[in-house]
Amino acid sequence: MRKIKYSEALSEGLIQAMERDPNIFVTGISVDYSVGAFGSTTEAVRRFPTRVFDAPAMENALTGIAIGAAAMGKRPIVYHPRCDFLFLAFDQMINLAAKWKYMYANQAGSMPLVVRAVVGKGWGQGATHSQSFHSILAHFPGMHVVLPATPADAKGLLMSATQTDCPVVIIEHRALYNIEGDVPEEAYTTPIGKANVIREGKDITIVATSFMVQEALVAATELAKQGVDAEIIDIRSIRPLDEETVLNSLQKTGHILAVDTSWEMCGFSSEIAALAAEKGYYHLKSPARRMSVANCPAPVSLPLETAFYPKASNIAKTVLAMLGKNGDMSNIDQDDNFKGPY
Amino acid sequence: MYSERENLSRKLYQEILRLRLCEETLVKLYREQEMRTPTHFGTGQEAIAVGVCQALNLEDVVYSHHRCHNHYLAKGGDFYALTAELYGREDGCSKGRGGSVHLTARDKGFVISSAILTQTMAVATGSALAFKMDNSKNVAVSFFGDAACEEGACYESLNYASVHKLPVLFVCENNLYSTESPLNTRQAPGTSLCERAAAFKVPGEVIDGNNVFGIYDAIESLLPKIRAGGGPFFLECMTYRWREHVGPNFDFDVADRSYRTEAEQRDWMENKCPLKYAERVLLEKGIATESEILGWQQGYQAEINDMVVRAKESAWPNVSTLFANIY
Questions:
Q1: Whole-model pTM over 0.95
Q2: A57 lies within 8 A of chain B by CB
Q3: Is A107 an interface residue toward B (CB < 8 Å)?
Q4: ipTM score of the complex?
């Protein structure tokens, strides 16, 4: 199959969605710049110049504006170059969009709002340009929260989001934008709420989000050389959460490690641990484990930043420890080829 | 027998009367403690909702805030569905899921009301964006209070509407109080909200919010310009909140509540009442008689009473529907 980059897959999905539905428009900071949302809107602005337009820095009202347009039948896609700015949009997203269908008992129409937010990583992005808010957003009933980890799902989940009648937040990861993968050329949707067993295995279940799926795949390749066959679940959507796929895998392997791009405290990895404890307890041969970024704000300085992020080696070492095995995993990490500044 | 203008005046009065009777009926019922929803009564502020909504078309859309009953009713929302909503019944406009502050009458162009200040200023601006993108002549109206102008999203919305020349009418109901905070604790002396709007190149005007005829005329002259692509307008309507921020009482009947004086309140209620003013105009101009007005009053009250009885008797939501309409 044809291989393209994550950013190209986002772009292709967007164009096919906009061809399909004239009510879709895209707005947010930088969407009509020459770099076009890190390349993901460059082609769309060329093809649909009146439907892809910049916005002032006004995340709160801009989200409300998207809601008001959606209420009139539009399908707005609001883009945020950095996820961290979503805090300024949370009132409109959580207090209104997420509750729209329920609070007005489906009498005020549907709320097909799509919010795209990019998580930064590395090159000293620092404490306020590197956070991923998927767990916070998934806390609230009424919204879907998805995290595409592959080019194929970047396209498929974006196309799904533009055909869903409730708000969908797409958490994209800057470190994924340049990775390549198989992507079908035709239009297709990836179902929201269905996890993907991206690597089958029998010894341990690794449930990962976003960029950590890629790190887990690297770890699994090295673990296989040590005789450990890891199953990796790319969760893809955390609300709705595909509990069945996680529990089926746990039943098979008896061990579970949740690896996330955001903190453990009240976070997605804790949700998986709770799921294992509540509904998979009798499958567990060892305690469920969590792994995520260090429990501090993201630092800038290179050695500190390097220590902050878990990598394939950390995953592999933890897996070996959980299975009572030994092995040297210190040299498996990929080079971080992300060049700055943004 | 009456001119078009006289019939319009009669209609404007009738609408204020109807809204007043609706709201004051709800005030009485609220004391029975059977409406379990925090309610912000709009008594005394009816002229703004009526003057604006009577000038709009069905296709124009209206958004409101926590004190929303007047706007909902003035745009055509059903009083039975409002009452049932306050009683938490399945027949409520939001099927008992929303309560007093979350109303909708979508088919009448009352899209939603919301309890969070300034939220719907942005949402109305977005509907205006959709109208502009579709080359439609519809107008979006946002009703909000003076305290909404202390939220940042107010200025984001004004700026955006101005930059894109959107067909949105910002109607500020300045009732002088935000919960129990008077203007002078919230805005610098000499503050003019229209000047703030003007800073974003949004033209504005201050108007008597208790004169329904003046409001209607102002809106009627503004709408063609807005529909023609002239961009947003900021109308500041000076009015007064009769009852406490939330709940059915007059502040002067509540012990130890001293943020405004009884004399000030009585002056507004007795000398600047929008209903009394409109009634006086009709009688002085001879376009209605006292007995005619009494007849209207009795007619509306009978309809209201009937709807209240039906709402009280209507069914509760089935608990099995607790999870309906989440996505």
A1: yes
A2: no
A3: yes
A4: 0.97
